[in-house]
């Protein structure tokens, strides 16, 4: 195994035997005829990938896609039915909530037991115990049996142990969603620190924005298959398209995703656009807004339509002129047309502004709740949607999404959605002192004192 590679997964498959009745398990053990008293469930099917040292890789997929099974095999808590996994480095894992904890042991005893499993001596655990206890923030419960813990307390302690053993490979499942918002921010800050130290991180989450922010690469799993891997923004877009697809379109979308072997042309890969945000200050400023016909989104990703279609997304200035090169501080109107081939109830419209990397910066919906939504839209109707927004972004290139939520009798869902529907540029200014992405109108002030 190459010294630069942390994890290699090769042709990995895992099947489980499903018994309809308890007695079928006994009959299978006693059977000599070759008859099967079980149904075979294939949780993973011929999955292969490799992760280099120092990489942070996200795994996304719908429920039941095989993500947790894959992590358990990599960690060694499950045995594959076929294929192999090789790892290079000490693994610390936070998988299912409280996995590896003895409910009758106290938190303190479980800390020492888990640390020992991860390869720490008692002396090493002694030296780190105060930091583990402080991070978990469970107070006197550290000496109480784990079976008395809430789910939040359990995940706090499990994570505190996992990140304090100096892992070379950190594997994190969706368990962090159990903690409160403050604890989640604390955990992600520590994950960033571990990432900065050069550790390899394998991260599973349903939160697309988290994967985009934390990960260098992403893998899309579905039905036990690895459908795609690549840039987080692209993979999250495909995952969301699959997640909101009508049941009768899922197989076609799966086939399209897994069969798409050519490299997608997306703005995040464009050196010209990426360089643009880095050298904006050095470009001669163009003060007037205008329309650049060459500035077109090449990565538009449309959800499957539920009888509704979004068309003609564009940005208008207050004079009604189409523009895509905007002036900072000015107000613009983002507009798109929505055609309804079916009737829909509880209709809401939305927009979202994102960076080239896919980080969501902000947006709006037309209604906070269903009570404020459009009660009903007739079949054959066309609606013109418009959102006014103030451009408080610093010079750079950005995306706009468009979406329609509503119900056609199957519960609220996206009736249609366009990711990366519009591409626009914020023009540089000669007197720019703002930094980062958003201009918060910060005003510097300082006083010089002399003796």
Automatic annotation (TrEMBL):
Keywords per UniProt: ATP-binding, Nucleotide-binding, Transport
Q: Which Gene3D superfamilies match?
A: abc- transporter (atp binding component) like domain (2.70.50.60), P-loop containing nucleotide triphosphate hydrolases (3.40.50.300)
Query: What are the recorded GO MF terms, alphabetically?
Result: ATP binding
Please report the stretch or stretches of sequence annotated as the ABC transporter domain.
27-248
A Pfam family annotated for this UniProt entry = ABC_tran
Give the protein family. Belongs to the ABC transporter superfamily.
User: What's the protein called, per UniProt?
Assistant: ABC transporter ATP-binding protein
Source species: Azotobacter bryophylli
Organism lineage: Bacteria, Pseudomonadati, Pseudomonadota, Gammaproteobacteria, Pseudomonadales
């Amino acid at each position: 195994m190459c010294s630069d590679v942390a994890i290699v997964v090769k042709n990995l498959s895992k099947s489980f035997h499903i018994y309809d009745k308890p007695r079928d398990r006994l009959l299978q053990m006693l059977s000599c005829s070759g008859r099967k008293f079980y149904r075979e469930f294939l949780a993973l099917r011929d999955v292969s990938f490799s992760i280099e040292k120092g990489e942070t890789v996200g795994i996304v997929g719908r429920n039941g896609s095989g993500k947790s099974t894959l992590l358990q095999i990599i960690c060694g808590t499950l045995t594959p039915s076929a294929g192999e996994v090789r790892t290079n480095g000490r693994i610390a894992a936070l998988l299912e909530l409280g996995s590896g904890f003895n409910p009758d042991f106290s938190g303190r005893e479980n800390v020492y037991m888990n640390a020992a499993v991860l390869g720490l001596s008692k002396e090493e655990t002694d030296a780190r115990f105060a930091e583990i206890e402080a991070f978990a923030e469970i107070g006197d419960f550290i000496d109480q049996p784990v079976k008395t813990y809430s789910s939040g307390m359990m995940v706090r302690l499990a994570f505190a142990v996992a990140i304090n053993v100096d892992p070379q490979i950190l594997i994190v499942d969706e368990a962090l969603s159990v903690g409160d918002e403050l604890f989640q921010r604390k955990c992600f800050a520590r994950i960033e620190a571990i990432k900065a130290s050069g550790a390899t991180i394998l991260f599973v989450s349903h939160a697309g924005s988290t994967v985009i922010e934390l990960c260098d690469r992403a893998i899309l799993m579905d039905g036990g298959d690895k459908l795609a891997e690549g840039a987080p923004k692209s993979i999250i877009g495909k995952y969301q398209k699959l997640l909101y697809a009508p049941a009768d379109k899922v197989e076609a979308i799966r086939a399209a995703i897994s069969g798409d072997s050519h490299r997608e042309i997306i703005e995040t890969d464009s050196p010209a656009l990426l360089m643009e945000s880095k050298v904006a200050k050095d470009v001669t400023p163009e003060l007037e807004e205008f329309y650049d016909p060459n500035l077109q989104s090449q990565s538009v990703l449309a959800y499957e339509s539920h009888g509704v279609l979004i068309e003609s997304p564009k940005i208008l200035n207050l004079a009604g002129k189409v523009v895509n090169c905007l002036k900072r501080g000015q107000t613009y109107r983002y507009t798109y047309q929505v055609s309804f081939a079916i009737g829909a109830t509880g209709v809401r419209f939305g927009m979202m502004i994102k960076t080239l990397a896919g980080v969501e910066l902000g947006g709006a919906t037309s209604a906070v709740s269903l009570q404020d939504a459009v009660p009903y839209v007739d079949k054959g109707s066309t609606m013109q949607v418009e959102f006014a927004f103030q451009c408080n972004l610093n010079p750079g290139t950005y995306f706009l999404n468009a979406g329609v939520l509503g119900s056609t009798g199957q519960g609220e869902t996206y009736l249609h959605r366009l990711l990366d529907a519009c591409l626009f540029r914020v023009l540089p200014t000669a007197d720019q002192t703002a930094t980062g992405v958003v201009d918060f109108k910060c005003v510097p002030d300082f006083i010089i004192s002399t003796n």
